[in-house]
């Protein structure tokens, strides 16, 4: 598939910001990696901070859209939660560099750009929080301090970006299914636990992020 | 308490490496932060890589020593696991910058220095793995793919470094107790779950890392 110059710049930035940090990455590095002149690079990215903010909004926006689609129309809290976990795990395992940039560089942004990013993240985490609350109300989940449990599970699931390798023996489906069970157990859901509908999650990932 | 020049250099390095990355931190930044001349700085740190490797070995070495002390003589797998979780959570919540440096900068090290760091990390994770295996053998835990569960729990627990604030409403003891329950549930331990002995964990933290 043909890759646009804008997309080449974006990919170069994710790769370099992840490897060397935002402050460690120069305009010349970006131009070289994207195979553009420094002058034409500015046409595609604005400032380096614009580029970073765009990557973060794009990444968190996709995650939010994907999560909303994955749970649309699902009322059972365990199935909703399982799908949220599966989506989070699959996308973070597939995009470790993007995860690193989004997690590490928020404080680099000026307050205006940061606000937009933080709002997207809050909306995404709210979806998790509401699903946990619904499960508690329905008696399907049992956990004190649900907001701490939510943070713990988000860290657990996002952490796959730091160790999962597609070259290993574990498929993304197996990984996602395993994590869904761990999360539901931690939430005090009753066994036996059904695996979430991974076909739906896979289709959402393909529709929001494109093919693997 | 008086702080030695060597310790000042170490603290300056943890702070700057966490904020700006290893490659983004210059010798002059380090000297300024540690309030030493660049020339005398070399006396305390050798090369910048020596300094980083020393920080990592020290951090992982303390974690391993602390974990070994916390579970010494404990045979019940749930109590062992709860103490490992509590120790990991307390130390990572207390030292977020050190966590970031140890997690992010391993690939900066040359192969010799890296080997020593990786061996310490492997030994530490082996302690978790052996405890999980012992729980499975005793019928106290039930999880498929125990090595994946171990990684998931380590990421969950270490993740507190990215969000916990001592200024919030949650004490370190409450945090550690909550995470112990989440981890034991994820491992399929039977309810009701006893909290691990946090007095022991607190004493180990004080003996290995010093007062808070």
TrEMBL record, chains A, B:
An example of a GO molecular function for this protein is: DNA-binding transcription factor activity
Looking at the record, the residues that make up the HTH tetR-type domain are: 3-63
UniProt source species? Prauserella shujinwangii
Q: Which segments of the protein form a coiled coil according to its record? A: none
Which controlled-vocabulary keywords does the entry list? DNA-binding
Looking up InterPro entries in the UniProt record yields: Homeodomain-like_sf, HTH-type_TetR-like_transc_reg, HTH_TetR, KstR2_TetR_C, Tet_transcr_reg_TetR-rel_C_sf
PANTHER family linked: HTH-TYPE TRANSCRIPTIONAL REGULATOR RUTR, HTH-TYPE TRANSCRIPTIONAL REPRESSOR BDCR
Supply the name of the protein. Answer: TetR family transcriptional regulator
| DNA-binding feature ranges | 26-45
